[in-house]
Amino acid sequence: MRLIRTPHLAQALAPIGRFMPAAGLGIAIGIAIGSPALAQSGSEAVHAVTYLDVSQDWVLQGAGLLKQYRDASSHQPGNLEFTVLQEANRPNRFVIVEGWKDQAAFEAHAKSADTSRFDFTLEAIRNSPPNQHVLRDYANGPEHGTPGTGAIYMVEHIDFSPPANAASEPAVKALAQSSRSDADVVRYDIYQEPPPHTNHYSVVAVWPNRKAYDAHETAASTRKFRDDTAMPARANLYDQRLYKILD
Predict the structure, then answer these.
(1) What is the mean pLDDT of residues 171-180?
(2) Which residues span the domain enclosing 231?
């Protein structure tokens, strides 16, 4: 699921802060007006994982823009989480992990002035449109402590062929349960996209250090999940990336 937001023209022309490169002021003008993707109806919590990247020449400005957006968004009504991570080996790539108490809060944030300013500013320095996956709770649990300095964050996308998804769900839940029982894990949550894309999952996990992450990767339960879901009929594809928190 791709999300490309563009602000209304009047909002686009508003002041957008010190992170805006001068050459980018006119880029968003004339782009067709879009609307944010809807997640699901009802009062259940709505989550989203958004991947984005900026030009290598604008990494510091991109990080500053994301911090500004994080601080503003985390104070909006109904926010449950707004975490911004920077990819460990490719610092121009980031991911936003956010949670909202319900669909109304999620939509209000998407339509807010803070989001419009962020989208407009990002337009001038990004390499590609943000890629957002809107999600719901699936296999989640409480965090074990607070991540400290040197914590390893992992965000992973899991994708099954639709016919095999139902048969694969027990393996996904077993992975979450076994991973959360690891002695050193801080967080291990698996979210699922709403219908009709229930064959797509996002994993958000945290370990205190690289040694703990490496131990998880070679654990029997992790290897079993990969063995159980690697059958050709299931066509399991996953994209796993490591991050650090953006302070």
Answers:
(1) 96
(2) 140-245
